[in-house]
UniProtKB/TrEMBL annotation:
Name listed for the protein in its UniProt record: Complement C1r subcomponent-like
Coiled-coil region list: none
Cysteine pairs bridged by disulfides in the record: C142-C169
Entry keyword annotation includes Glycoprotein: yes
Length: 295
């Protein structure tokens, strides 16, 4: 498969880039010097080529050849908006899945993502999964996810599609001391439950500063939680079955406010008294004339 995807939010006046992707597809018979058969040759180009390609589109071209042949791609012209890691616009090619299908074993396939390079391919997994030693299969890995940004989103794997079975996830949020975390769950919220027994199948446990503040399941999302803490762990356990859609939360953090400074007697003066003091703010105390500041 060859897919081309330009950036979704490009401004109208942004510099346009010309893509000329001309792609003759040549086929070689494996192990032979037979000339390229007629008809086994084609061109793929970006829409509107040779004019600039349009914004916000995604196109996949599938090239299939008979067994025993392989595909060769030659780019004649290539002009895409450059960006780090091809974040904005890109062309990617995905695996030929059945190389040498004459062998008896079923062809090796990637469980999630497949990446071609000349002469081979390799597999990778979607975020939240780890490639297994066989180089093909992917297993959920969420046992020690750490979030240290001041705000962000956390969700169960595949959200809002059903989460995988047998998860043992630990999502930890750690923000700077002097900050407090707020958790807000989004809709849909759906974790397998039971009418009589509390969360017997799958459950989301929330720990604030190491203390359990609740186990959640069902379709009722938890209310907004003001944790008064800079440390939260979310443990998500699932059993071997079920098809609930999971959960997603938005967390934010805020610097804590301090109690108003108060004087102990009428001789002390607090300079420039502010209406509100936050963590790390300072104030200076002095004395009325003729008095001395005590320790
Ligand atoms: C979850 O991860 C945090 C941070 O690494 C750790 O302190 C906590 O003990 C973990 N909880 C469990 C149940 O493993």
């Amino acid at each position: 498969d060859i897919s081309l995807r330009p950036r979704m939010d490009r401004e109208e006046n942004a510099q346009r880039w010309l893509l000329h992707l001309l792609l003759p597809v040549l086929f070689y018979r494996v192990g032979g010097a037979i000339p390229t058969p007629q008809g086994f040759y084609g061109e793929v180009m970006s829409p509107l080529f040779p004019k600039p390609y349009p914004n916000n589109f995604e196109r996949t071209t599938v090239i299939t050849v008979p067994m025993g042949y392989r595909v060769k791609l030659v780019f004649w012209q290539f002009d895409l908006e450059p960006s780090q890691g091809c974040f904005y616009d890109y062309v990617k090619d995905e695996c030929a899945l059945q190389l040498n299908s004459v062998e008896e074993d079923p062809p090796a396939r990637c469980q999630h993502l497949c990446h071609n390079y000349v002469g081979g391919y390799f597999c990778s997994c979607r975020p939240g999964y780890e490639l297994q030693p066989d180089g093909r299969s992917c297993q959920a890995e969420c046992s020690s996810e750490l979030f240290t940004e001041p705000s962000g989103y956390i969700s169960s794997l595949e959200y809002p599609r059903p989460y995988p079975p047998d998860l043992r996830c630990n999502y930890s949020i750690r923000v700077e001391r002097g900050h407090t975390l707020h958790l807000q769950f989004l809709e849909p919220f759906e974790i397998d439950d039971h009418q009589q027994i509390h969360c017997p199948y799958d459950q989301l446990q929330i720990y604030v500063s190491g203390r359990n503040i609740g186990e959640f399941c069902g379709k009722q999302r938890p209310e907004r939680i003001d944790t008064q803490s800079n440390s939260v762990d979310l443990l998500f356990f699932t059993d071997e079955s079920g098809d609930s859609r999971g959960w997603k939360l938005c967390y934010t953090s805020e610097v804590i406010t301090c109690p108003q400074p108060k004087t102990l007697d009428s001789c002390t003066i607090i300079q420039d008294l502010q209406p509100l003091y936050h963590f790390k703010d300072r104030f200076t105390a002095t004395c009325k004339e003729g008095y001395q500041l005590m320790e």
